[in-house]
Design goal:
Blueprint: H1 2-16, H2 21-44, H3 47-63, H4 65-75, H5 92-103, H6 108-127, H7 139-143, H8 157-167, H9 174-186, H10 190-194, E1 201-202, E2 207-210, E3 221-224, H11 227-237, H12 261-271, H13 280-291, H14 296-303, H15 308-311, H16 319-326
Antiparallel strand pairs: 1-2, 2-3
Helix pairs in contact: 3-4, 8-12, 9-11, 9-13, 13-14
C-alpha cells in the first residue's frame, strides 16, 4: 500500500511542476512501439530470415543435398555468430576475422568453400534488394595470393583408362555415363549440367550456352563441343526432338537432377579410383588443356572464371609451354 501512496505522491509532484504525465505515457508507448517495429524490421532483414524464407528453399530446390549442406554451414557452422544479425550490420572486418580463425582450424580449401557459401547468400540478398552491396571481402584479402597447394586433382593416364572402362560397364547408368563424359570434355560444373536444358544446346553450331542464372560467376558463357561431347549429346537426344524447355538430364518427373553421389561412388569403386570428386572432372578438363599447351586465359574463359587468379592454380602444369614462351627471346 505504501508503494501505491508513494507513486501517487510522485505523480502529484510532477503535476505540480506542470509536467504532462499523460503525454509522457503516450510518448513512452510510442517509443516502445517504434523499438518493436525497428526490431521486427531487423529480424526480417537478418541472415536468418534470408536463409529460412528465401535463399534456403531456393538452394534446396535446385541443389538437394548440396543445398542442405549450404544451409547447415550458414546456420550451425562457421557463420552461426552472424545468424541473427541484420544483413546491413555485417561488416567485412567481421567476416575476415571469422575466416582467419577458421583457416587455423581447417584447410584453405574448406575455408574457401565456407566463404563461398556466405558469399552466395549475400549475393542472393543483393539480387533481391535486401542489400545494396556485399560486405564480403575479396578472396585476396581473405586468403592472400592463391598458392600452388590449392587442391587440383586430375586423372593420371592409367586412372583415365580405368574410368573409361567403368563408364562402359553395362551396370553403369547411361545418364551417369553421359554426365561424366560431358563434364570431362566441357569443364562444366555439376549444377550447370543438372540445370542444362535442350534450348541451351546448339548441336548444329556445336556449342553449349551456360546461362548467367545457372553460372556460379553469374556470367553467361559459351562452351564449344568437341567431337566426343557432340557425339554423346546427339546419341543422348536420340531421333526425337525434345521440347526446348526440357532438361537434358531430367530427374524424377522431369525435374532437374539434384544428386548422383551414390552412383558416382559406385563408379569410382568399379574403376578403383580414390579421392576423386565429381567436381574434379572440371579440374581434369582444365589440367589436360594446360598440359596440352592451351593458354591460361583461354582455359579461364572456358571455365567461366571471373579473373585469372583462380585459373593460375593450373599454371605449374605447363612447364614445357612456359619454357617455349621464354625461348622467343633467345
Amino acid at each position: 500500500m505504501s508503494s501505491v501512496k508513494e507513486e501517487a505522491k510522485r505523480l502529484l509532484g510532477l503535476v505540480a511542476q506542470g509536467i504532462d504525465i499523460q503525454g509522457r505515457k503516450v510518448a513512452a508507448r510510442q517509443r516502445v512501439r517504434q523499438q518493436a517495429t525497428e526490431q521486427k524490421a531487423e529480424q526480417a532483414n537478418s541472415l536468418r530470415a534470408l536463409v529460412i524464407d528465401d535463399y534456403g528453399p531456393q538452394r534446396l530446390d535446385h541443389q538437394g543435398r548440396g543445398g542442405t549442406e549450404a544451409v547447415r554451414l550458414l546456420r550451425e557452422g562457421t557463420w552461426a555468430d552472424l545468424w541473427n544479425r541484420p544483413l546491413t550490420s555485417i561488416t567485412g572486418s567481421e567476416i575476415a576475422r571469422i575466416v582467419g580463425k577458421r583457416r587455423k582450424e581447417v584447410s584453405d580449401w574448406r575455408a574457401r568453400r565456407e566463404a563461398d557459401t556466405l558469399r552466395a547468400a549475400l549475393n542472393f540478398a543483393i539480387e533481391g534488394g535486401r542489400l545494396s552491396a556485399s560486405p564480403m571481402p575479396k578472396y585476396r584479402q581473405l586468403f592472400g595470393k592463391l598458392t600452388s597447394n590449392a587442391r587440383v586433382r586430375y586423372l593420371e593416364p592409367e586412372e583415365r583408362q580405368r574410368l573409361e572402362a567403368a563408364l562402359d560397364h553395362p551396370r553403369t547408368p547411361g545418364r551417369l555415363r553421359a554426365i561424366t563424359r560431358l563434364a570431362l570434355h566441357t569443364g562444366m560444373r555439376q549444377g550447370e549440367i543438372f540445370k542444362l536444358r535442350w534450348r541451351d544446346v546448339d548441336l548444329r553450331a556445336g556449342r553449349i550456352t551456360v546461362l548467367s542464372v545457372n553460372a556460379k560467376s553469374k556470367r553467361e558463357r559459351h562452351i564449344p563441343l568437341n567431337t566426343v561431347a557432340l557425339a554423346l549429346l546427339k546419341t543422348w537426344r536420340g531421333p526425337s526432338d525434345p521440347p526446348p524447355d526440357a532438361f537434358v538430364f531430367p530427374g524424377k518427373d522431369g525435374a532437374p537432377l539434384t544428386d548422383t553421389k551414390t552412383a558416382w561412388r559406385t563408379l569410382l569403386e568399379r574403376a578403383g579410383i580414390e579421392s576423386f570428386r565429381f567436381h574434379d572432372c572440371r579440374h581434369d578438363f582444365a589440367s589436360q588443356l594446360v598440359m596440352k599447351g592451351v593458354p591460361l586465359l583461354e582455359v579461364g574463359t572456358l571455365l567461366g572464371h571471373a579473373d585469372l587468379t583462380m585459373t593460375m592454380r593450373y599454371a605449374h602444369l605447363a612447364p614445357d609451354h612456359l619454357k617455349a614462351a621464354v625461348e622467343v627471346l633467345a
